[in-house]
TrEMBL record:
Its EC number is 3.6.4.13. PROSITE patterns: HELICASE_ATP_BIND_1. This is Putative pre-mRNA-splicing factor ATP-dependent RNA helicase DHX32. Its main location: mitochondrion. Residues 1-28 are annotated as: Disordered. It is found in: Mitochondrion; Nucleus. InterPro entries: DEAD-box_helicase_OB_fold, HA2_WH, Helicase-assoc_dom, Helicase_ATP-bd, P-loop_NTPase.
Amino acid sequence: MEEQGLGCPGSASEKRYFPESLDSSDGDEEGVLACEDLELNPFDGLPYSSRYYKLLKEREDLPIWKEKYSFMENLLQNQIVIVSGDARCGKSSQVPQWCAEYCLSIHYQHGGVVCTQVHKPTAVQLALRVADEMDVNIGHEVGYMIPFENCCTSETILRYCTDDMLQREMMSSPFLGSYGVIILDDVHERSIATDVLLGLLKDVLLARPELKLIINSSPHLISKLSSYYGNVPLIEVKKQHPVEVVYLSGAQKESFESILRLIFEIHQSGEKGDIAVFLACEHDIEKAYEIICQEGSNLNPDLGELVVIPLYPKDKCALFKPNDETEKRCQVYQRRVVLTASSGESLIWSNTVKFVIDVGVERRKVYNPRIRADSLIMQPISQSQAEIRKQILGSSSSGKLFCLYSEEFASKDMRPLKPVEMQEANLTSMVLFLKRIDIAGLGHCDFMNRPAPESLMQALEDLDYLAALDNDGNLSEFGIIMSEFPLDPQLSKSILASCEFDCVEEMLTIAAMVTAPNCFSNLPHGAEEAALTCWKTFLHPEGDHFTLINIYKAYQDIALNSASENCVEKWCHDYFLNCCALRMADVIRAELLEIVKRIELPCAEPAFGSKENALNIKKALLSGYFMQIARDVDGSGNYLMLTHKQVAQLHPLSGYSITKKMPEWVLFHKFSISENNYIRITSEISPELFMQLVPPYYFSNLPPSESKDILHQVVDHLSPLSTMKKEQKMCEKCPETTEQRCTIQ
């Protein structure tokens, strides 16, 4: 992405020329003397504002501030420093600023500072906060880079970015020469990208002795990090005051009822403060939201209404940002109830949360390489996750943590650390990246926890099926181009195939829509029928992928022809569509189109609507998703996967479910094993088209099944030899037309 201030609040230009006006003052001698007394900000050369000093006092009260001298001394004398501290100790905001001071002191001769975050909202929030504390402009001296949004310039001193963005930057700059200090924050989250960076940076540090690496982590992981990196200095931030913890051991069996009862008891007690509720999954958030809204209206009005805020997982595009209306409501009604199923990162900066309710379990995605599908498993959270949830109460001495489990459950059933994502996720994208970085000589990665061999083999096998590898196991030309796209490799392959089938514009729209959060809004109780009526206007007979194109085109038409953004939001609201998700799809599509143009891929004019175009789109989709095919085995919507014996149903929001027309063969985008084995985003395909595009060695490796036998018959029907045999039989039966038929043949 080109370096620009996309979506950056504020402007660097207003403040930039203020010093010149001071220097040119020649009449007011007292004014000049007064200006000379002002302390100047070394990062932009301008006088500090009064707000800087106010925030400086707050920074000095943070637990980590006492360690500043020790940290700076260790930073000067060592290449690697580990910082251990709790979630609210200030390490994520203060350590990067101290590193920026270090880089300034040596005149940026080795580069600036980059600080990675696991979560997108955290990177943005930290950048905004730190720019405020440093008294500089966001998008200029301090910026952020998250997928599909870059709020930095070439002059940015301190960048916050997601760990996957820094990983992608290594493809073009393997030794990260733009940075003098790299900070890996929240390493205890153990995301795939953070683990890969921990391994690759070992070699980068050897190649660049001047580079500094800072590792921020919770105390739980420190012993493992110390043994992984050897004898490196450790800065330990002392723990804050203890939080009152109430264990409700009998509440776990009826946790949902206990949560609701606790919320209403806290509210009726009249004690001030917001409530954060940690639930197991998104479904529980929706259920709790509906019940609390209904029951809350029956409470004593003198206590005020409860303002319920659902914080959905990252794929829901619903990070809570209070608008004016919400702020007014919260001032009047005094209490927010935040429902979340995350680790609580977005609540770390909240000083209003006085009560935390934790169910102690979560629903996790665990990838099974044998069947190429995620399983949704309910399991206890880790002790480190429970600790972070406790830390949300931070400096609140009057706060309470209600644990809906026993102390025995916490000590025996909860594992000490959060599971390593690398050992539970699909590794195909990671292996593609490592193959790409291997070109620069950094292919060897010393993982802190080795990924499962079976997952690695499955990833290599899938890349081979997608033609991303050559005969020697290195990246092919296809693989190199696929790695340019910040997408799942299957989706990247479909975009490349669309160049051959003249449907690039349509495929980019599909890629953007499936990468963005779900475009359908969460429905309030009783709105299902009205929503389905609206959504039916977008349905396309060829399948859900085509429906997504219809929705995007309708959104784009409204956006282009509307006088204001409010009109677009109203249209989305009226059609029960997620405006935030559609905006994100628009940004993603623009980025993908930019990549297509940069690497000079052929791009035909859009022809959406024609039969030939629909067939070409299916060909492009099949080129990437031939491993995700299912067949309706009994005509009643029970779809059997081609790769394994799992049976699934179409998702209720699929166009086929709405119209009650079940195709026999479908290509699907997502499948997870849970109580509802749904396949999501499906489009009908023909077995003949599948056999034309599937790699022969993939088909030959499929396990025996009735579906495979049917496809074998299709192969026999399509093969030239079988066609000749049929013609010969027909010639024998009709001797009088033999000459004519043979001539045609």
